[in-house]
Structures are given as C-alpha cells and as structure tokens.
Amino acid sequence: MPQSPAPGLIEDLRPMSLTAFRDGYSLRDLRADALAGLTVAIVALPLSMAIAIASGVGPERGLYTAIVGGFLVSLMGGSRYQIGGPAGAFIVLVAGTVLQIGVEGLILATFLSGIMLMLVGLLRLGDYIKFIPFPVTVGFTSGIALIIAASQIADFFGLRLEQAAPPEFLHKLAVIWQARGTVDLTTTLVAVGTVAAILGLRRYRPGWPGMLIAIVVGGVLAWGGLPVETIGDRFGDLPRALPAPQLPGFGMAEILAALPFAVAFTLLGAIESLLSAVVADGMSGQRHRSNAELLGQGVANMGSALFGGFCVTGTIARTATNVRAGSQGPMSGMLHAVFVALVLLLAAPLAVHIPLAGLAGVLIVVAWNMFEKEEFLSLLRVSRADAAVLLITFLLVVFRDLTEGIIAGTALGGAVFIRRMSEAARLEPVTPTDAVPREQTENVVVYSLRGAYFFGAAATMGRVLDRISDLPRMLVLDLSRVPFVDTSGAQSMVGLARKLERQGGCLALVGATPEVAKVLRSQFGHHASPKFFDRMEDAMQESCANRQG
C-alpha cells in the first residue's frame, strides 16, 4: 500500500489562500482587502500597460497578464501578500524574446516557464534559489533599471528613429543619438510633467495614486487635442474583454526555439518572486512558503499564456503597496485582478488616449526606483570582492545578457564565499592538560581545528597538517569546533592517517559530532582508520601501540 506524503511536504506546498481562509475570514477582512486591492489596481493599471509596451507587445497583453496571472499568483502562491503581474525586470528579456521568436514564441516560452517553475516548486528547490548573493541581486536589478531607462528615451523625447532601436545597449544608444535632432518639445513636456507629477505627489501627497493621476491628466490633454502620440495611434483600440483561452503551438522546432527564453524566465521569475515575498515578510512579520510560491508562480504563468499574456512574477512595489494598504491576505491580490478586469471591460475606449510619453515617464520613475543607488555605492566601498561580484553582474547584464550576468555573478559570488570560508578555518596548537603525565605527551602533538572543513579549507589546511605529521608518533586533532566536513575534507584526513601509519604513528580525533564522524568513517573504509574519542584526556592517555586498526 503506498504511503501518503509526509505532512511537511503537504504543508510546504499548500497555497497561502487556503491557510488564510482556514484561519478565519470575516466581512471586516473582506472590506480591508477590497480597499487594498483597489489601491494596488490603481498602481498596476498604468504599469501593466507601460511594461507591455516597453517589452515590445501591445498594452492589452500587459492587462491580460495582470488579470489572469495576478489572480492566480494570489490564489495559488505561498505568500499571504504577494501581488503578481508583469514586472519591469522582465522588460529586457521579453523584448529580446519578441524580437527573436515573435509574440507566439513569447507565449510558448511563458507556458514552458510555468511548467519549469511548477517542477522547481514540486521538487522543493525554492530554498536554494534564495541563496543568490546580495551583490548579484543589486547588480542585475541596477543593470535592468539602466536598460529600461535607455529603452524609454525615444518615447520620452518623441524621437523619430530612422530604424528600430536594436536590443544591444550601445547600439541602441547610437541609434538614439543619431535621432537627437528630432526631439519633440510637446512630447518632452508631457513626459517631464508626468515624472514631476509622480514625484511631487509622492512627496506632498503620498497617499494619492500619483502614477494614475499623471496618466489620466496626460490622457485628458491628448483627448483635448494635444499633439502627442497615444496608445491608440500606435496600437489601435484596446479589446474590452479577455480573449478565449488557447494553448500555444507545441511543435518541436517552436519548443526548441523557445526553451532558452523559458529557462531565463524561470530563473529570473523565481529570484524576483522570492525576493518580493521576502520583502512582504519583512513588512508584515509573516513567513512565506518558498516552494508553494514557486508552484503558484508556475500555475500563473501557464494561465497567463493561455489568455495571451506573458511572464508573471511577484512585483516588489505592488506587493509593498498591498501591505501598506492594509491587506489581510491573498484576497486583496485576487480583487486587484478583478478591478483591473473591470477597467478593461468599462474603460478600454478611454485608454487609447493615454500618451506614450506619459507611460515613458512612468517607466523612467520605475527605473530610477529599481536602481539600488545606496546599496550599489555601499557594496563598492565594503570590499573589493563584493565590488567585483557587483560590477561583473552589472556590466554583463547591461552589455551582454541578463542570464549570463546572473550566472557569472553567482559563480563569482560562490567563489568569494568559498575563499572566505576557507580563510575562516583555523588550525591552532593546544598545550596538553596538566592532568596528563609528561611522559605520555612525548612525541604527541595536539591541534584544534576550527571552522567548516570542506574542499576549500582542505586545500590549505591539508598542506599544514601534512607538515605537522612529519613530527609526531601521534597527532591529536580536536574537532569539537568543526560544524561540517565534506568528502574532500574527509579524504585529506585519510591521506594524513596513511602517512602517520607509514611512519609508525597514528591519528586521534577528539570531539567530532555524530554527523562529522559519520562522514569521516564513510571515507576511511578499509584504509588507515583513526581513533575517535569524546574527551581530550582519553586521547592523550591512549598509546599508539595498542590503537585499533
């Protein structure tokens, strides 16, 4: 008879919405969530359209993503307060995907990414994704911010480009520079006014929806005849409802073309959503479930793709707004999606009057907020190693590729960590206790090993131990302050014991924890085996003559 899953697994993958309703949900909670959901929807509405346009797709796809993906993230995810939708961090990846494999390829890549995220959650790998070094997160976030800002220059100033701006950062700037003589003053004033309105309201009226107000004012001016390019001029009328769900094409050639982009979506989506969930935890005092969150993100991406949307992830700014607005649980996220759907149903004809310069101003503010200025400068000052990880990630993201930047930065960050951990390991001589007769300490050397003894530390400590083993008939190592030994560290102990045995000596290990002793014994096998002691006094009184093989 098959065994049922362990309760820990079920709890780890349970959506937070079930937990919230199980704990009790009142009419008062619903009112609070409705207000929070409306507040978030007001923020999400202009952002979703702006992110979609910057990503190279129509604004309606940003709304589809916010509605379907946002609803499913809150329903199925592992964070009580997470708000899902299109994110600025994905603009670079989505735009590159559309450029290379088209919108249909983007939808397929989003669907495949959803499958991958579900598998990552089911395999309970969420805790490992959070081990991305902080300099890497600052580097790729700041790099994305710079690319977003560069992508909005043309719409911000109303430039007439002779050719479409290429995705490469320097080439994009070159094309924009060539069109510098086509700056449109009216468009520029609308964009600058949008930025000024958002920043001014944020400072003097922080409770007001600055982005929505700025966009509405710009839309009214355009509707009144202001000569600026609008959403309707470039994209035509917006649909007033969600499209019918449709599976993307699953031809082998299409899958192979979309797979690299799907992997990139999965990597960035997992990192971004878990970072957002951690931010929500810090603001609310709650604790999210990483694997349930990734499972929910996977379902949300598949659902978004079915309705013509693109990548969904947890969004830090909207999630923080949700918490500050008084959300009581996942219902506020689901209601935010419902409110956005109502806007699509009732106000789609009005949205065509929104100036593209206004949306560019919104994204310039988003990019400025994304660029983690204080953290960036702090990391440059803290240490050369952290600065190197930060700059490598940042430069690769800007000038090469987002995925390359994350992978290279994480690898370099791991190497820095290994070096620091290996340098933290210490080997210190120990003076034998007075309780042990002097004649028993002759030809005996005692050392205390401190810190994790893994492959990084073993490379350094092994050479020191090898030199020490030339001297005594008996080498005693105090391992009571060694929390961890890996197989590389254990193998260096095997070599040390063999050398001592050839010289007629022996190795004694004192105070090893059961976990450390288990790893050591597994590697010694039939080779020269040390003796294990609980106390230093017992090891010092042991004679090499009667040691066990």
UniProtKB/TrEMBL annotation:
Domain STAS: 434-543
Membrane topology: Multi-pass membrane protein
Keywords for this protein: Membrane, Transmembrane, Transmembrane helix
Pfam families (alphabetical): STAS, Sulfate_transp
GO annotations of cellular component type: membrane
Identification of the protein by name: C4-dicarboxylic acid transporter DauA
A Gene Ontology BP annotation from the UniProt entry: transmembrane transport
InterPro entries reported for this sequence: SLC26A/SulP_dom, SLC26A/SulP_fam, STAS_dom, STAS_dom_sf
Organism name: Roseinatronobacter ekhonensis
Major subcellular site: membrane
